[in-house]
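dumping the sequnces here before i forget
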Amino acid sequence: MSLDLLFFPIALLIIGFSVALFALKKILRAVIALSGAFLMSSLFFLYLGQTLAALLQLFVFVGGLPTYLIVAVAAEEKDKERFDIRLFFLLALLLSIVLSSTFMGINTEVTTGNNFLALAGSALQAYSMILYLIVFMLFSATIGSILAIKKFVKLVV
Amino acid sequence: MIIGYILALCTILISIALAGIATDRHLIAIMLAVELIFLSSTVALLTFLSSNQNADSSGIMLLLSIWSVAAVEIIALIAFCVYIKGSGFSFDVSKLSKMRW
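..and the predicted 3d for all of it:
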């Protein structure tokens, strides 16, 4: 079985989880569907040969963020309001056709992969300030969110 | 690895996310759709970076930026969740109308 054939089941699963995100009525299940999409994308990165990216995606987007999301939405008892799912599928199909026209003329050549993240190594040192800025932004957003919640909502412990 | 198929996957993901943003009224579902857009852009970026014969680290900063913005968006979503639940507002965006013109 050619390695290229592995792409199709992974892609179908990613698309399936993405559709399930909107089709499921309970928002908690929608969050789990998003986690499934992230997990499949992690597998896809592995298929591309980017092992470090796959691990980062797994640790952060599958293990970290959905944990907080699930805790945050777990107490939501009300189901989603009903929306027209036929309109959703029609719109998704139309957008797929329209947006596909942007890369119609592209050469669909088969290329070999490289593990660019493993080669990043010492080159990241040149970007250390930007990395610190990103970390600071993340930390500020977290602290700011917590302070905003404490100011406007009385939390009953 | 055929880039056209991978781009088609990214296009389909973005289309699904945009359709969800346009049709769904639940705030959390809309923000999860934005996460889906981040995911598709990450897949496209990683595809182009890994197919580059002359491997370098110039794209890694863009990749890390996308990941960090997606993570911050989740944090903001959790904050919105707690605030809206605590204030008794609805998650239906059509009912969040106080800032309407």
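The helical segments of chain A are 7-23, 27-47, 51-73, 85-100, 116-120, 128-152.
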